[in-house]
Task: structure prediction
Amino acid sequence: MNNNKKGRPAVPVKKDQRITFRITAMELESLKAKLDKAGFKTLGAYVREHLCNHQPREKVSIPFAGMQVALELQAVANMINQGKDSGLVIEELHKINNKLLGV
Result:
């Protein structure tokens, strides 16, 4: 290691990997406006800062049973919209309720 205090300090880690992706002209203009507003000089620094320091939301997975209930409730809503007999609608809601309770 050179203990010379003169000159430019050494870069801690060389950036030798490249990522390429395509964006539209409007997206590029939007990014440039954001980097100017944030005070970044280069687009690479702005994108790197946001990609490396951003914590993504965890993926939400809905169990199949939940999806099935949602579909059945949509069918009941459709029955109501079509003006079906309220007795039929209530019967369907009871069936869904019994499925949820495991009866």
